[in-house]
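Regression test attached.
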Amino acid sequence: MAEPELLLDSNIRLWVVLPIVFITFLVGVIRHYVSILLQSDKKLTLEQVSDSQVLIRSRILRENGKYIPKQSFLMRKFYFNNQEDGFLKNTKRKVVPPSPMTDPSMLTDMMKGNVTNVLPMILIGGWINWTFSGFVTTKVPFPLTLRFKPMLQQGIELLSLDASWVSSASWYFLNVFGLRSMYSLILGQDNGADQSRIMQEQMSGAAMAMPADTNKAFKAEWEALELTDHQWALENIEEELMSRELDLDGMFSQELPTGIF
Amino acid sequence: LNVLIIVFTEMRDKLRKWREDNHRNSEQIVDVGEELINEHASKLGDDIWIIYEQVMIAALDCSRDDLAWTCLQELKRQFPGSQRVKRLAGMRLEALEKYEDASKQYDSILQDDPTNTAARKRKISILKAQGKSAEAIRELNEYLEQFVGDQEAWHELSELYINEHDYGKAAFCLEELMMTNPHNHLYCEQYAEVKYTQGGLENLELSRKYFAQALKLNNRNMRALFGLYMSASHIAASPKVNATVKKANVKYATWATNQINRAYQVSYARCLL
């Protein structure tokens, strides 16, 4: 039997739900611009640039090697993968794990990251909790167990209230995560307001784990290249080309540009 | 005399289009850009700096040192420590043939930032301008060892090798370009031409195949069509081939001839219109 539906005052919708959405959104936008201002230049060493380009070249060789003659492909594959002096096999880079203590720039980066992201979230979450407390804000569309009650119903002391009815603080957190796609729409990809992405980055290890990665990346490329075979795309090119007449439409039709405009 | 009232926005958009498409129509850029800078500087806003850069490079091309100097001064005033501006100053010295000074300028950029590719490439072009092709080739090779992905550099190197008649190495460079740009018919065509120049049965076969590829990518590439005809007939005329290969190549050459005739008819029809 469905429990009795609560009817919320429509003022709540007007003065609580919408303002929280606006606040979250605007704070996100401000965070994005602040992060741009505070961004420190990441200096790349010559070696890092060079290595990343080598990796790209190896990948291109794997993907588009079929457009060059077999001999040339084998020559390049040999250069990369040869047992004795293949580049991918033998080049070892010094691995310096970038821990926050040893690398001062990492430390400042982390601090800036924390300040711009975590701090506002805590502050505003707390302020919303304090301002909009004591009433139910909205209902989540799916049923929740009673365990969620203390988390989602901060400030509402009703034991019998369904856990689906949540307070404004939880509505705020819902917004923080939900507006992520809105930020991508408006601020473009890779924007500074994208909190969950930043948290993911922090969780998956050091933000710029380049050094250790290079060795692993080389190894991965070596394996992939070993497996690649050469299927020449031009094997039957003449037959393909001459199976039909050439499309000469629009040939000789462009007038030579004269004058400025 | 047609006196047209050119709207300022039109001029600015033209410049932007030329900038994005990397056109080297320096005289036009100087004409349009000079007027834009002199008459409409205030309306340009922040665009003006990139226009200064564009006009300066065009002015160097047209030997307009006065205009280049003005642009450079404005840029220096706005961006005092900038490496990009330093590079422009170096380019101006190059245009005045003060190669030693230009080289020193680029060296100072590289001291601050060893990864600056623009400065390194300018140094190589100085060598090229002085006619020291062997050194230029050597420097460019070293550059490419570090920056394997720089396509502009690969193309430049292939040109240098062709000038030195080192077709094998030129072919290697063009192969890099073909791999990174598999849909660009011009690289295929250039590669085929190099192979054709190298000569020998195997290379002729390769060149025929790559002319065909260029045609497949762009049906209207006349040069590739002629190349296809030439390589096919060359192979067919060679005494070393067996009968089947000869027959196949004669077939290819005939097909190419038909297409060439069709193309001439199209152009003739155009002329009549």
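Expected vs. actual: identical. The beta strands of chain A are 138-139, 165-166.
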